[in-house]
Amino acid sequence: MIDLIAFDADDTLWGNENYFYQTQNEYAQILSDYGCKEAVLERLHSTEIKNLKLYGYGVKSYTLSMIEAALSLSFREIPGELVAKILALGAKMLTEPVQPMNQVQDVLEKLSRNHNLITITKGDLLDQNRKMKKSGLEKYFSDVIVVSEKNDEAYQQIIDSKQIKAANFLMVGNSMKSDILPVLNIGGYGAYVPYQYTWEHEQVVEPVQHDKLFELKDMKEILDLKFFN
User: What is the pTM of this model?
Assistant: First the structure.
């Protein structure tokens, strides 16, 4: 029996990574005088990963990393007007529309009739709450939890706070690394719903096999899982 179903937010409930891809293309164009697209994005990625422990996840930390990478590529000679353009890229990402993905609202409506649903996501607290409200999905969830990292300890703390056992917990998400593997490690169930884009930092190369893992083609297949029939 499943007592609690948790959903990831970005790229599970609504699209998000596509905005990062779009921003990267514009960023590389802004810095085209300082390197080819591949070199610019490689520097950005390495800077972003380096800064995760300091800044965490989300658009604001990403914007800081864009500025730092630009300073590095330009040997600290980048003009102020280009820094302003980079800041504008970050601001634009914070105001992008939030559109629930296909099937999401129907699935949440049906599951919420008989199950307790929550959201567990990484990122900036203010931005994630903004997206949840703009999505119109807030009414389906009893709690929206924003964590600094998704690991075994974080998930264990959450299910302990909800006073349930891991064996009665199902996590739904698009990241095998952050949404699924830690939950399997503590004895819970994971439903993996891939998205068209996956951040390089979240990619898992080796195939995963586990008797509590469900790999789905789309969100609607959740309703066909053994728990709900």
Answer: 0.92
Q: Which fold has domain 17-94?
A: DNA polymerase; domain 1 (1.10.150)
CA distances from 203 to 103, 119, 153, 165, 199 (A): 24, 21, 20, 28, 7
- Does residue 117 contact residue 26 with C-beta atoms inside 8 Å? no
Per residue in 130-141, is it b (16+ CB within 10 Å) or e — as a string?
ebbebbebeebb
Hey, what are 112's tokens? 């919420």
Q: How many residues does the chain have?
A: 229
What average pLDDT does the chain have? 94
Q: Which of 58, 59, 78 is nearest to 68 (CA)?
A: 78
Segment (H or E) for 6? strand 4-7
CATH number of the domain located at residue range(s) 4-15+98-224 in this protein:
3.40.50.1000
pLDDT at residue 207, as a whole number = 79
Half-sphere exposure of 117 (CA within 13 A, CB side): 20
